[in-house]
Amino acid sequence: MDDDRVWSFEKSLWTGDADHYRDLVDDACLMVLPQPPFVMSGKQAIEAVAHTPRWSDIAISQEQIARPQEGLIVIAYHAKASRGGEAYEARCTSTYRRLAHDTWRVVQHQQTPPIVSRPAVEAAG
């Protein structure tokens, strides 16, 4: 899969409907997301997406792609998504494996929202 197709594939996971998501996410996928239950299987993620409004817009930047072996693609990027009046931002990774010629499935995905820094607490002293 060439780079342009990788990014189109990833964007479609953010904006596509539940059937599209079901077609592209492997049942054996593991995901880490910033809301409970935080760690979930592909089946759990597919079920969650079926009951979650899809993002209407997704912007991806800081894209990186690695191909550590034939049939395996690992990506990392910064995502900014929106729907209605809601905005979301996260650093993300996904891993795809090829099942057959031109048939790819997500087997790993994680999202890390920006970490809010806390003021340092001065030691009593």
Keywords:
125 residues; alpha+beta; Nuclear Transport Factor 2, Chain: A; 3 helices; globular; DUF4440
How would you explain this protein's 3D organization?
The chain is 23% helix and 49% strand. The protein is an alpha+beta fold and 125 residues long. The chain has one domain (3-112): Nuclear Transport Factor 2, Chain: A, CATH 3.10.450. Strands 2-1-6-5-4-3 form a six-stranded mixed β-sheet. The longest helix has 13 residues, at 3-15. The protein is globular and about 50 Å long. This is DUF4440 domain-containing protein. InterPro entries: DUF4440, NTF2-like_dom_sf. Residues 10-106 form the DUF4440 domain.
Biggest beta sheet summary = 6 strands, mixed
Average pLDDT value?
91
Number of domains: 1
Number of helices: 3
CATH class: Alpha Beta
Strand order of the main beta sheet, please? Answer: 2-1-6-5-4-3
Query: What is the element string, with H for helices and E for strands?
Result: HHEEHEEEE
Using the 3D structure, state the CATH architecture. Roll
Protein structure class: alpha+beta
Domain DUF4440: 10-106
Protein name: DUF4440 domain-containing protein
Pfam family, one: DUF4440
InterPro entries: DUF4440, NTF2-like_dom_sf
